[in-house]
């Protein structure tokens, strides 16, 4: 799966994330699980699943 961490300053695309007491650790999906970033909860707006199917616009049904 691919995730996008939305922060106040930028978005970070990652393959894996870990929640801890003070924020979110973001990782790439390579075999070494490369650390990409740490985002404190104060700066995290959301984590989105980029692979999720989007529902069609209900107004056209």
From TrEMBL:
This is Uncharacterized protein. It comes from Halopelagius inordinatus.
